[in-house]
Amino acid sequence: MSNKVLGGVLSEQQLHQFHEEGYLIVRGLFAQEVEQIKEEFMRLHALGTIPGCFHAVPAEEAGGDILKQYPRMMHPHKINDTAFEYMLHPKVMHILADLFGGDPLAAQSMFYFKPPGAKGQALHQDQFYLKVEPGTCIAAWTAVDPADEENGGLMVVPRSNKLAVECPHQADPQVSFTKEEVEVPEGYEVVPAVMEAGDVLFFNGSVIHGSYPNRSADRFRRAFICHYSDVDTTRIGKYYKPLYRYDGTDVTLEDNEDAGPCGTEFEAVSAAH
User: Fold this and answer.
1) Residue 114 CB neighbour total at 10 angstroms
2) pLDDT per residue as tens digits for the range 149-165
3) Domain encompassing residue 258
4) Is position 136 within any domain?
5) What keywords does the record list, in alphabetical order (predicted)?
6) Does a structural domain hold residue 1?
7) Chain segment 210-247, per-residue pLDDT in tens
8) pTM
9) For position 47, which CATH number holds?
């Protein structure tokens, strides 16, 4: 295990819940900062397009698809200082160090707007895409708005962190904007992760999770999401580079060429995730 310089913030009870259930909600972690995050990403959205990050289609060209008007932003930390700052924020990095048992490396950032009328995301496992070795990834999912079953909040499958990464099947495009879906195994159940703005949900890369459609009349469900591995990682999927240490310095790892549980049949759709 590498030397640990971060951590020491979670209780034994919190650590136990994460390792047993696969997830942990830290309430109010960014309660003071969440308005800054929201304002900055709404400013970015108003730009319309940022190459390599997102492209918003005007309403008259979107054909009724609200997610074309509010697409998710991919890797905003590569083009925006606020995204980079919060991806490596000490509040998150110290918690991740406790969860990993070693210092974390930041691999990815995303921002979801999830406006009213948006589809949900089918159940999936993040490690299917990130392919972290050894070990797995951990997500830090910051609720920028209150998130619940009505406005498209997350759902998780407790204890699925102890399952293998599964080969998904095709999801129903009428309810999910992504193409892959994982079944909930017998004996497990889906539960909503109800959150307030500023709460942060941490979950293991094998945890089966997804999101509800936004059925509210006027409530966005914005979220800032980052993925991490730990400092002992040697390989990761080729779409996640460079990774960043706590101090902002970067490191490039070996590409993980393992095709995973699906062989090569899902390669095209996985690349688009």
Assistant:
1) 30
2) 999 999 999 999 999 99
3) 12-271
4) yes
5) Dioxygenase, Oxidoreductase
6) no
7) 999 999 999 999 999 999 999 999 999 999 999 999 99
8) 0.94
9) 2.60.120.620
